[in-house]
Design a protein that fits this description.
It is a single chain. The protein is mainly alpha-helical. Helices cover about 75% and strands about 0% of the residues. Helix 4 packs across helix 8, helix 4 crosses helix 10 and helix 7 packs across helix 8. The chain is globular, with a radius of gyration of 18 Å.
């Protein structure tokens, strides 16, 4: 294994340790937008990069439970929703064990299931997942934008509205991407890509 391959293999643990450093953690939790749209996605990326560490036996067991990637994507969706709720993001700042839960559950229950499930998912499953993710961005964005009160006690109303605008922008971008993919992109309807990863 070359030095570059070694660095790539250990990118997940290295990123996790970097995010856990107090200066980095405090900076990314200084605003609602950074915590929700930078820190949590980066923690999910850590989990995605942990996929090579799964032993073959564990992969076979997970594949039997995760046919078509559906179970794993549902688990990832549930974990994502939990950590986008105002109450849990507030608690992560105020309660140490909730912060620890975020740093462990987001990689393990969000990023890793995505890495395992996405290659196995077919066109319909991927489409439903992406449409629901887009709808969730619009719903939460609208909620954060129009709420007259602070939903997170640790963040100002202006930061909450900024996060709402960012979520709406993400939802709009995902909508355009999905529309482009359906009209002009390559669509793997027959699931050949998924079968190659089975």
């Amino acid at each position: 294994m070359t030095r570059l391959q070694t660095v790539v293999r250990w990118a997940g643990p290295i990123l996790w340790l970097t995010l856990a450093l107090p200066p980095v953690r405090h900076a990314l939790e200084s605003t609602l937008t950074l915590q929700m749209l930078v820190q949590i996605p980066l923690l999910a990326l850590v989990g995605w990069w942990l996929r090579p560490f799964l032993p073959d036996r564990a992969v076979k067991v997970l594949n039997a439970w995760n046919r078509g990637g559906i179970s794993g994507l549902l688990l990832a969706s549930f974990a994502a929703m939990i950590w986008m709720l105002p109450r849990t993001m507030d608690s992560a700042l105020n309660v140490p064990w909730v912060e620890l839960a975020k740093f462990t559950s987001v990689p393990v229950l969000l990023g890793l299931p995505l890495a395992v499930s996405w290659p196995r998912a077919g066109f319909v499953v991927r489409g439903v997942f992406l449409v629901e993710a887009t709808a969730t961005a619009f719903r939460l964005g609208w909620l954060y934008l129009v709420s007259p009160q602070r939903l997170c006690s640790n963040y100002l109303l202006g930061d909450q509205q900024l996060a709402g605008n960012a979520l709406l922008a993400i939802g709009a971008a995902m909508s355009l991407l999905l529309a482009w993919k359906l009209m002009w992109g390559h669509v793997d309807v027959d699931g050949s890509h998924r079968r190659s990863h089975a």
